[in-house]
Amino acid sequence: MTDLHTEWTKWFVENNFAAPTVYYKIVHEKDPPYVMSCPGGPASVAHDYPNAFYCSSDPYYNLRGTTEDGLIVLPVTTLQRMWTGDVLGTVSKKAGDFAAAIIIAHEYGHNVQDELALQWEKYYPGKVPGITGSNKEAIADCFAGVWMNTTYYDGILEPGDFEEGVAALNAVGATQPGSTHPTAAQREVALKLGYNSGDPMQCVDSYWK
Question: Which of 61, 117, 152, 161 has the most beta carbons within 10 angstroms of its beta carbon?
């Protein structure tokens, strides 16, 4: 999360946007389930709930003691299972720690969508297009790939990490085209577009529609 925020802040500022704000909650084994306010999501998330979430409407206290919206919820046992190849209840073809990293990067990608939409709306009121169908998930996959590109150039991407990330998204791909989530093949294409280009605007051009 720290590296994601550092890299995305760098890109936002370099491109004349305000730095993104997002918070996260790691739900540990001894914690009570986190109660979510996001419509369409579960009422609560325990440490082993088989998914991670970004909720744009969940409030969180910032360092100034006031509240802002936008929270990533990370159930710790679910993330630990990804290291051994259990990705949200599906067996990954390539187990490893980077599976958890790419899922977290995907959730952060949803926050990037929100930040860009809010800031563009400020400058171009009424002209920001919506993101339809499975594109909302595909663009988050693509943004995750952009972050993975930065880990390569920062020298922290280890041998096998790329394959672990691809396999993780393949494992959670929709089985039928037309779903609200991309198929495994579509998720891999989106991730690789972000990774190979390192350019968030290529993600926007391909999926923000």
Answer: 161
